[in-house]
Specification:
It is a single chain. Strand 2 and strand 3 form a beta hairpin. The protein is an alpha+beta fold. The chain has a five-stranded mixed β-sheet with strand order 4-1-3-2-5, sandwiched between helices. It has one domain: Alpha-Beta Plaits, CATH 3.30.70.100. The chain has five helices and five strands; from the N terminus they run βαββαββααα. It is globular and about 40 Å long. Helices cover 42% and strands 31% of the residues. The relative contact order is 0.25.
Length: 132
């Protein structure tokens, strides 16, 4: 069984392309070493991420994310186990998505990302990650 953790976090400053590049390089290097796969989605200042792998490694990575000064807040949405990885080919897949895209996917209107994330069940967030 593969352990997974889904969380969201809010950026502490406005990310530029170089910030995304640095973040992804660090994540991919660490995830390769720890055999962690996953996906990171960025939407208007908020990151939504799923990490999958060995339970202790995933929890250690999440603890380092919580301490990362690039984020001002994080919150675990759900944790669990699955038979196989969803992102087996990705040490860290990444997409930027707009709130308009989320509203189009869901066929409704969310006023902001925080409202969407705080009211979305974990399965909706997982589906968002998989669709992107």
């Amino acid at each position: 069984m593969i352990f997974y953790l889904l969380y969201y976090g809010v950026q502490s400053f406005k990310f530029e392309q170089k910030d995304f590049d640095e973040l992804l390089e660090q994540a991919r290097e660490r995830n390769e070493r720890l055999d962690i796969t996953g996906k990171l989605v960025y939407c208007e200042g908020t990151f939504i991420q799923v990490l999958e792998g060995d339970e202790q490694n995933v929890k250690d990575v999440y603890n380092s994310i919580e301490a990362d000064r690039r984020l001002i807040a994080t919150r675990i949405v759900t944790i669990g186990r699955v038979e196989q990885r969803y992102f087996s080919g990705w040490r860290m897949d990444f997409d930027k998505v707009s709130l308009d895209s989320i509203n189009e996917l869901e066929n409704c209107t969310h006023p902001n990302v925080t409202d969407y994330i705080s009211n979305a069940p974990a399965i909706k967030l997982l589906k968002l990650l998989i669709k992107q």
